[in-house]
Specification:
mainly alpha; 2% strand; 2 domains; 18 helices; disordered N terminus; three-stranded antiparallel sheet
Length: 521
C-alpha cells in the first residue's frame, strides 16, 4: 500500500464584481487557476455564496446552492489532486526503478524500506495533518482567515516534533527490528541503511503535508501539483545521477528522495509568494499574517483532531500491509498475485482519495460559514460522485479482467490467479470509494474520532479475522483474504453513512465556531 492511503486539489478564476451589499471574496478556485474559465465565488456577511452563474442565493441566514454548482467545484478540486497524488507516489517509485536494476537483493531492500517508512513515518505525518482538513477549511469558511496560517504553523511545529521519534526509529532501531522480522540479514541491513539516509528528508516531507493544507483551504488545489511537476522529474533525474552516473549505487536512491522531500516545502512556499505577488488566486495575505508566538501554545484543539486522524490513516495502512504479509505465507505465486492486486489498489485509490480531500475542504468550508443547505447539498453531490467513481472503477476492472493481469506478469499462474480474483476485486471498488469518501466527509465535519473507532473495529475485529479464517482455515487463500477486506470496507461504508445521515449539522457548525474561538486565545 501507499503512504497516502493512509494519506494529501483548487485554482484561480475571474473575480466577479460584488454588488452593493458589500460582499467579501471567498476564494474557492475550481481548477488550474491560470487556465480555468470558472469564476470565483463571493460570500457575504451572512455566509451566502454568490456565483457568477447565479447558482446560489441567500435566503435569510441560509444559503441555497445547486447540485450543478457543487459538482463543478468538486470536480475542479479533485482533478488536480489525482495528478498530485500520482506524482507524489512517483518519488518513491523512482527509487524502486533505479535500484531494481542493481540486483534483486537491492530491490527487495528498497521495497522493505519504503514499506517501513510508509507505516512508521509518512502515514503518521499524513494522518496527523488531516486535522487541518477540518481546522483550515472551517476557519477559511468562517471568515477567520488568519487562523488558517496559525493552524498551519502549529501543525508544522507539531510534525517536526513528531520527526524526532520517527528519526530515532529509522536511524537507530530499524536494523535490529528488521533483522528479527526478515530472514535475509543483507536485505534488512540495506533497508535500514536506506532509512538512515532518507530520514534527513522527513522534516521537509512533514512541512509539505502541512503547507499543502494551507493552500487547499484557500481553493488552490493545483498548487501542490505545480510543485510536484517540478520536483518529480527532478527526483527521477537525481536518482539516475546518484545511483548510476555518479555510481553511488544503492545509497544514491535514498539521497535523491531526501533531497526532493527537503525541496518540496521550499518550492511550495515560493509558489505561494509568486501567486500572492501576481494575484494568481487564493487569499494568502489574509491567511498568513506572519510568524507568531501563538503558534507555540494552545495545541489542544489541533491534537484532539490529529490523533483520531492518525488512527483513521494507520488502521487502514496497517491492515493492508498485514494482508501482504499473510499472502507471503501462501507461497511465492500467491505473493506475486497479491503484489499485482496491491499495485492496482494503489492506482484506483487515487480518484476516491482525491474526492475525499475535496469533500473535506468543501464541506468544512460550508460548516465554517454556517451554510446548512450548502453543506447538505455538498454531501449529496459528494456521495453521488463516490458511487459514480466506484461504478466506473468496478466496470473497468470487470471489462479488462483478461487484459490487466498480463500487464504486470508473464507467469501464466499469476495471470490466472489475478483474473480469477478480479470480480471480487471489482466489487471491492464500490465499498472502497464510499468508505474513502465518507472518511473525507467526517474530516470536514470534524468527526475524526468517529472514523478512527469505526476503522479500528471494522478492520481488526471483523475484516482481518474473517480474512485469516477464510484464507487459511478454509483454504480459500487470496479469495479468503480479500473477502474479509471487502467485508470490512462494506461495514465501514455502512456505519459511516448511517452516522453522516443522522448527523446534527447545527452542532457541527457550533463546534466549528467554538474551535476557532478556542484556537485564537
Amino acid at each position: 500500500m501507499t503512504a497516502d492511503r493512509a494519506q494529501t486539489l483548487h485554482p484561480r478564476a475571474a473575480a466577479t464584481r460584488a454588488d452593493n451589499e458589500g460582499l467579501i471574496s471567498e476564494t474557492s478556485a475550481l481548477l488550474n487557476h491560470a487556465d480555468s474559465g470558472l469564476a470565483q465565488e463571493s460570500s457575504g456577511p451572512d455566509g451566502c455564496i454568490k456565483g457568477p452563474d447565479a447558482t446560489t442565493k441567500s435566503i435569510g441566514d441560509l444559503t441555497e446552492t445547486t447540485w450543478q454548482h457543487e459538482s463543478k467545484v468538486l470536480a475542479g478540486y479533485s482533478v488536480p489532486m489525482v495528478l498530485t497524488f500520482l506524482l507524489q507516489q512517483s518519488l518513491t517509485v523512482s527509487s524502486v526503478f533505479a535500484v531494481g536494476h542493481i540486483g534483486t537483493t537491492e530491490l527487495a531492500s528498497v521495497s522493505l524500506a519504503t514499506m517501513t517508512a510508509n507505516i512508521t513515518g509518512y502515514s503518521v505525518f499524513n494522518g496527523l495533518a488531516t486535522s487541518l482538513d477540518t481546522l483550515c477549511a472551517q476557519a477559511f469558511g468562517s471568515g477567520r482567515k488568519e487562523l488558517v496560517g496559525l493552524y498551519t504553523q502549529r501543525m508544522v511545529y507539531f510534525l517536526w516534533l513528531t520527526t524526532i521519534p520517527v528519526g530515532i526509529i529509522w536511524f537507530f532501531l530499524a536494523e535490529p527490528i528488521l533483522v528479527r522480522l526478515v530472514p535475509d540479514a543483507t536485505v534488512a541491513h540495506l533497508a535500514a541503511t536506506y532509512l538512515r539516509i532518507v530520514v534527513f528528508g522527513a522534516p521537509g516531507y512533514a512541512a509539505f503535508e502541512a503547507i499543502k493544507r494551507f493552500v487547499q483551504a484557500q481553493g488552490l488545489f493545483s498548487a501542490p501539483l505545480y510543485v510536484l511537476i517540478i520536483c518529480a522529474p527532478l527526483n527521477a533525474s537525481l536518482n539516475y545521477l546518484m545511483v548510476w552516473h555518479l555510481q553511488w549505487g544503492f545509497i544514491g536512491a535514498p539521497l535523491a528522495v531526501a533531497v526532493t522531500h527537503s525541496l518540496l516545502p521550499i518550492v511550495l512556499v515560493l509558489y505561494i509568494r509568486v501567486s500572492k505577488t501576481n494575484n494568481a488566486g487564493g487569499d494568502a495575505p489574509s491567511c498568513w499574517t506572519g510568524f507568531t508566538p501563538k503558534a507555540f501554545r494552545n495545541w489542544g484543539v489541533m491534537i484532539r483532531l490529529a490523533i483520531p486522524g492518525l488512527l483513521m490513516t494507520e488502521a487502514e495502512v496497517l491492515a493492508f500491509e498485514i494482508l501482504t504479509f499473510a499472502a507471503s505465507r501462501l507461497g511465492t505465486t500467491v505473493l506475486a498475485t497479491q503484489s499485482v492486486l496491491g499495485t492496482l489498489v494503489l492506482l484506483e485509490f487515487q480518484v476516491p482519495f482525491a474526492l475525499s480531500i475535496a469533500a473535506s475542504t468543501r464541506i468544512g468550508t460550508h460548516i465554517g460559514a454556517a451554510r446548512l443547505q450548502a453543506a447538505r447539498m455538498g454531501l449529496k453531490v459528494t456521495l453521488f460522485a463516490a458511487i459514480l467513481v466506484g461504478t466506473v472503477n468496478m466496470t473497468l476492472f470487470v471489462s479488462l479482467r483478461g487484459v490487466i493481469p498480463s500487464l504486470f506478469s508473464s507467469d501464466p499462474e499469476v495471470i490466472s490467479n489475478v483474473a480469477s480474483i478480479i470480480p471480487l476485486f471489482a466489487a471491492f471498488q464500490m465499498f472502497d470509494a464510499l468508505a474513502t469518501t465518507c472518511n473525507g466527509i467526517l474530516r470536514g465535519m470534524g468527526r475524526q474520532e468517529m472514523g478512527g473507532y469505526v476503522q479500528l473495529f471494522c478492520y481488526y475485529v471483523v475484516a482481518l479475522p474473517v480474512s485469516f479464517s477464510l484464507g487459511f482455515a478454509l483454504d480459500w487463500q487470496l479469495w479468503g483474504l480479500w473477502t474479509g477486506v471487502a467485508l470490512g470496507l462494506a461495514l465501514v461504508s455502512a456505519i459511516e453513512l448511517a452516522y453522516i445521515f443522522h448527523t446534527d449539522w447545527e452542532r457541527s457548525i457550533e463546534e466549528a465556531r467554538l474551535r476557532n474561538q478556542e484556537s485564537e486565545i
